[in-house]
Fold:
Amino acid sequence: HPAASNSRRRTLGVFILNGFTSDDFRQLGNTGINVSPIGLGTVKFGRNTDVKYPNTFSIPSDITLENLVNLTHDLGINLIDTAPAYGDAESKLGRILKLQRHAWVLSTKVGEQYNEGRSSYNYSVESVRLSIENSLKNLQTDYLDIALIHSNGEDEKILEQSDVVSELIRLKERGLIRAIGASTKTIQGGLLALKMMDLVMVAYHPDDTSQTSVIDDAQKQNKGVLVKKALVSGHTQSTRENLKFVLQNRAVTSAIIGTINPDHLRQNVETAREK
Ligand code: NAP
Structure:
């Protein structure tokens, strides 16, 4: 909660953290959920194989990640995105967040598992139910704010021919999830996801504006848009320009930026707050 962030915001040596306030927050479509313009992406919390980042990296220790999450909170960020496919990121987050659950908007996914160096996809009712149960257990919570379908690329097939959407709707009705959506790859998939659910997660940056029609459609329908890969998964030098470009689009609710580097996190918030 932004008020909690403000009360925790503090002077660290000579540095004063200048983070988001509730004035900066954006509405996630019509879900009633408000989020900071930047969210924390957590692939690098738990997985360093078969990832698309430019450099290899070691997965940080628990205490390093706890410090990063505390900094995230102090910078006024209230949104964290994770997935069962990000190694043990969920259970690490669960241990860190268990005493501060209500300060966060937690987003996770269903449909992809990553085990022993291999991704597998399953969109059946049983698998979705089990995945959400596991996420609740790992994240040490009794509700998820956001659950997204983790697409394997066949967006339309998943949305139209599997029972994943109807099962997510059921879980939402049971109060286990507050908002549902899909992390999509195709235009048609994104548009379809917006018809059926509350939000989409799409890739968007100055060199890839192919999802603009999906983002525009979300705005028309008052649905949420989370952006992934705003920094081209680390393959750009123009981090400031990219972030500014993404956030200038008022149809974007939040850019989920993956980082395990506190200086990058601070820089990104600073950039986002520049008028
Ligand atoms: P990204 O946010 O575009 O880029 C992350 C990379 O940029 C990291 O390697 C990070 O390295 C670097 N970085 C961050 N801030 C920086 C800065 N100020 N200066 C220089 N480098 C910086 O890409 P992403 O992690 O692939 O995607 C973001 C998030 O979206 C993911 O973490 C995940 O939560 C979500 N996502 C979802 C899907 C899906 O659902 N299919 C797919 C991809 C991503 P450092 O750690 O060194 O900062």
Residues 41-44, 53, 81, 109, 150, 183, 201, 228-234, 239, 256-261, 264, 267-268 surround NAP (CB under 6 Å). Confidence is low (pLDDT under 50) at residues 1-11. The longest helix spans residues 125-138.
